[in-house]
């Protein structure tokens, strides 16, 4: 995979809220088609980095190239062009509560395409089918469970078939079975559609299950402390903190 | 050759061969942004006649995404539903696999949407059933409030007096400016308007009687309670509703605390102790408004004051105060009830706030009517 051009390229990114520097001068690449996970303890800045990558926050310095275009400085048409390449699932799903699942998925199409209504309904139904929610399309978000909300949010993020999906904590607050279901959805989309995933997670079982590559952030150092295949890092990382982070919970899981 | 549609980045050519078969040639990029331009033509073209064979030549496509696949799936569904054939040629293997994921069985038994429109009569039926169950829950809530209140009377140490104090300050003292302003303006306007009429009979001085009697018996408690409902009732409903949305009420319940005595009782106590005072402020500001009119018409202040109180007796005063107390219990009670009943979702808090004010004002009107009958029978 390394011989390809990266689809996302983060160069010397520094994120700060006011005086408070969260991450300091980090650089990494995401390759097309891979499942890339940003991990680390709570409050280390995972969501912060994600919010910068999708253009919600403006970095203190550095650049973020998405398919060759810098989202940091992009304005107007260019910005829209970049945003059409990405889809985002926010931590709580962020479905619109006054619309059915189908209407939620249809909304981006209504805004950005000239598809006829019945075509949008048809395609929205397919997207919901991809995440296993076909038969729930007429329900309101308040009528479905947390795991289903997240799956519906993934379907909505997929509405315009972006090449890159950003997911913030897809498994937070879910039981292991539902987490595994979401993991299957992610793997399916990655294999069938070749979608590139950037996922924020600290759920180790899920990371080992789906991640092609991870970076680990550290709250104190404000840097990337590890990068690579999570299974390899668990066994062979030079950094004992990284090894411990990856082994401790895995060990806990086996002992249950 | 058939007709061809060109668009942003995809071009489609439809070539009929005889009556039986149709060839569709696609060239370019078939993605979310370009598919819309050819969807109608493609679907209508295939539907137009019962083509026995449809051939889609896709080898000219540089790129196709989920939306483009959607079009192909739609065409295939149309053909298979009619028992006809479709052949999609030249699609790259990875897209072929995607297409096969949506085999027709996927779409055969689509469940009915549960958002179907209700008929008019059905709606009336549902609305009345809802109204009825709403009344029932309201009555039981009033019962709950009164039992919680009597429990609080027996065990005053159980009441959260700090909350009572805070709510009293917010709903009572902070409401003084608007109460005084509206009271003053109402007194001013009422006496000015009635003075204009009474002047023709040389009876301007009776404005004072009119104002005193109507304010103490009726308008003082009524207006104060309506202001209280819109200013503080809405706040009660919004506060409690937001707690409900944030699952704070669940937390309270799982701690074993009764939400009614925890949230509603302090607010009701604050309301029933503050509204009589607010009512007094309202009445006196309206009397000052009336005094301004009378003074400007050249009557001495003493004459005005003695007139105001000459036609009043203690039962008028107490009757008005009792009304204020009862109104306030209903207004605060229903506001808390609406807050506790808040649904889920972003608009839920707004709905319960609106409903708290509307139901509060309706209740005031209804209870005021009941009072009118009772006072009439008692001869007050
Ligand atoms: N909008 C914001 N304004 C100020 N500080 C923020 C903001 N968002 C996050 N932070 C701070 O940034 C740090 C990292 O937060 P976050 O990226 O959410 O961590 P996590 O890795 O758990 O997702 C935290 O200390 C948090 O307080
Ligand atoms: Mg986070």
Which properties best describe this structure?
heterodimer; A: 256 residues; alpha/beta; 6-stranded mixed sheet; 4-stranded antiparallel sheet; 9 helices; 41% helix; globular; disordered C terminus; B: 380 residues; Transcription Regulator spoIIAA; 2 domains; 5-stranded mixed sheet; 70% helix; 10% strand; disordered N terminus; binds adenosine-5'-diphosphate; binds magnesium ion
Describe this protein's structure.
The complex is a heterodimer of chains A (256) and B (380). Chain A has helices at 46-53, 76-85, 101-112, 117-130, 146-157, 176-193, 204-210, 230-236, 240-255, and strands at 8-17, 20-30, 35-39, 61-66, 69-70, 86-89, 164-168, 196-200, 213-217, 224-228. Chain A is an alpha/beta fold and 256 residues long. Chain A has a domain at 95-161. Chain A has a six-stranded mixed sheet with strand order 6-7-8-3-9-10, sandwiched between helices. In chain A, strands 2-1-4-5 form a four-stranded antiparallel sheet, with helices on one face. In chain A, strand 4 (61-66) and strand 5 (69-70) form a beta hairpin. In chain A, helix 3 runs parallel beside helix 5. The longest helix of chain A is centred in the last third of the chain and has 18 residues, at 176-193. Chain B is α/β, with parallel strands linked by helices. Chain B folds into two domains: 3-108, STAS domain (Transcription Regulator spoIIAA), CATH 3.30.750; 133-378, no CATH class. Helices cover 70% and strands 10% of the residues of chain B. Chain B has 13 helices and five strands. Chain B has helices spanning 35-48, 66-81, 93-101, 105-108, 120-154, 161-171, 176-198, 206-245, 248-254, 259-296, 301-310, 314-340, 348-378; strands at 4-6, 10-17, 21-30, 53-64, 85-89. Chain B has a five-stranded mixed sheet, with helices on one face. In chain B, strand 1 (4-6) and strand 2 (10-17) form a beta hairpin. In chain B, helix 6 (161-171) packs parallel to helix 10 (259-296) and helix 8 (206-245) crosses helix 11. The N and C termini of chain B lie far apart (96 Å). Residues 1-7 of chain B have low confidence and may be disordered. Chains A and B meet through helix 3 and helix 4 of A and helix 1, helix 2 and helix 3 of B. The complex binds adenosine-5'-diphosphate and magnesium ion. Magnesium ion (MG) is lined by residues 46-47, 169 of chain A.
């Amino acid at each position: 995979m390394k011989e390809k051009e990266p689809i996302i390229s983060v160069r010397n990114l520094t994120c700060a809220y006011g005086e408070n520097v969260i991450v300091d001068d980090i650089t990494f690449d995401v390759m097309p088609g891979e499942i890339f996970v940003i991990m680390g303890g709570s409050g280390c800045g995972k969501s912060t980095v994600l919010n910068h990558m999708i253009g919600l926050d403006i970095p203190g310095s550095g650049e973020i190239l998405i398919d060759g275009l810098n989202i940091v400085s992009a304005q107007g048409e260019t910005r829209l062009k970049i945003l059409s390449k990405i889809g985002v699932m926010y931590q709580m799903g962020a479905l619109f509560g006054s619309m059915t699942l189908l209407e939620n998925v249809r909304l981006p199409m209504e805004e950005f395409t000239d598809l006829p209504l019945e075509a949008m309904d048809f395609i929205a139904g397919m997207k919901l089918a991809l995440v296993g929610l076909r038969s729930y399309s007429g329900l309101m978000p308040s009528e479905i469970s947390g795991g289903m909300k997240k799956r519906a949010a993934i379907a909505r993020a997929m509405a315009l078939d972006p090449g890159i999906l950003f997911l913030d904590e897809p498994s937070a607050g879910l039981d292991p079975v539902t987490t595994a279901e979401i993991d299957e959805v992610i793997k399916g989309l990655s294999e069938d559609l070749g979608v590139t995933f950037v996922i924020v997670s600290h759920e180790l079982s899920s990371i080992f299950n789906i991640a092609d590559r991870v970076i680990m952030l550290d709250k104190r150092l404000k840097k990337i402390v590890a990068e690579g295949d999570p299974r390899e890092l668990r066994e062979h990382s030079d950094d004992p903190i990284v090894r411990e982070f990856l082994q401790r919970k895995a060990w806990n899981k086996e002992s249950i | 050759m058939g007709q061809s549609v060109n668009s942003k980045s995809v071009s489609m050519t439809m070539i009929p061969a005889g009556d039986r078969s149709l060839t569709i040639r696609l060239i370019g990029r078939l993605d979310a942004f370009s598919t819309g331009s050819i969807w109608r033509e493609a679907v209508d073209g295939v539907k137009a006649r019962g083509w026995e064979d449809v051939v889609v030549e896709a080898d000219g496509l540089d790129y196709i995404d989920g939306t483009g696949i959607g079009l192909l799936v739609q065409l295939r569904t149309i053909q298979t539903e009619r028992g006809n054939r479709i052949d999609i040629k030249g699609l790259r293997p990875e897209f072929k696999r995607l297409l096969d994921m949506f085999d027709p069985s996927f779409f055969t038994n689509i469940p009915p949407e549960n958002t179907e429109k209700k008929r008019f009569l059905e709606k009336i039926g549902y609305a009345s059933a809802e109204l009825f169950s709403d009344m029932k829950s309201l009555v039981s809530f009033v019962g709950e409030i009164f039992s919680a209140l009597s429990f609080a009377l027996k065990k005053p140490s159980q009441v959260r007096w700090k909350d009572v104090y805070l709510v009293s300050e917010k709903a009572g003292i902070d409401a003084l400016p608007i109460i005084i302003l509206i009271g003053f303006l109402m007194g001013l306007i009422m006496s000015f308007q009635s003075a204009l009429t009474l002047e023709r009979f040389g009876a301007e001085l009776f404005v004072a009687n009119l104002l005193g009697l109507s304010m103490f018996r009726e308008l003082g408690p009524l207006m104060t309670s309506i202001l209280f409902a819109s200013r503080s009732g809405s706040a009660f409903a919004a506060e409690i509703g937001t707690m409900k949305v944030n699952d704070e009420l669940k937390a309270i319940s799982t701690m074993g605390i009764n939400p009614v005595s925890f949230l509603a009782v302090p607010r009701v106590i604050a309301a029933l102790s503050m509204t009589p005072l607010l009512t007094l402020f309202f009445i006196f500001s309206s009397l000052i408004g009336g005094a301004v009119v009378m003074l400007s018409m050249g009557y001495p202040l003493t004459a005005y004051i003695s007139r105001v109180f000459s036609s009043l007796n203690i039962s008028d005063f107490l009757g008005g105060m009792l009304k204020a107390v009862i109104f306030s219990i209903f207004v605060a009670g229903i506001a808390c009830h609406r807050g506790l009943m808040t649904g889920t979702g972003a608009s839920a808090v707004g709905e319960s706030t609106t409903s708290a004010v509307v139901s509060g004002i309706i209740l005031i009107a209804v209870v005021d009517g009941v009072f009118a009958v009772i006072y009439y029978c008692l001869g007050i």
